[in-house]
């Protein structure tokens, strides 16, 4: 059983990291600078929120990583060991997506070439999207089961 603090930390981590990640994706994908752009003003090429959003995303990620480790130890491993079948599919997806999501996040920041960075960005976006959807499905299933 997940303890209350672990559950709150997991939800807080997902809300902070997922929220800032989605906002970062939005500002980097859909922002178009107003015309004309001064050719010497590089700040006009990025959204004014991009730096704050990116830094918030990076600095809140350890909360989610810590929560994943805590929940793995207290919840996932215990359920796996005891043969509990409820929520197993979404739980396994969460387990499978945790490492690529976390590792690719660090790889984006440390990769030297643009080609490798773009590959890690795609891995991070896809892995994180699957993680968030699976987390919501897993939580919803647990909530629905608890209400029955």
What can you tell me about this protein's structure?
This protein has helices at about 5-30, 50-80, 90-110, 115-145. It is elongated, with a radius of gyration of 18 Å. Helix 1 packs across helix 2 (about 50-80), helix 2 packs antiparallel against helix 3 and helix 3 packs antiparallel against helix 4. The model has no long low-confidence stretch (mean pLDDT about 90). The longest helix has about 35 residues, at about 115-145. The two termini are about 15 Å apart. The protein has about 150 residues and is mainly α.
Question: In terms of structural class, how would the helical and strand content be classed?
Answer: mainly alpha
Structural Rg:
18 Å
Mean pLDDT: 88
Quickly count the domains: 1
List the defining traits of the structure above.
about 150 residues; mainly alpha
Topology:
Elements: H1 4-30, H2 50-82, H3 88-110, H4 114-147
Helix pairs in contact: 1-2, 2-3, 3-4
Compose a concise summary of this entry.
It is built from 4 helices and no strands.
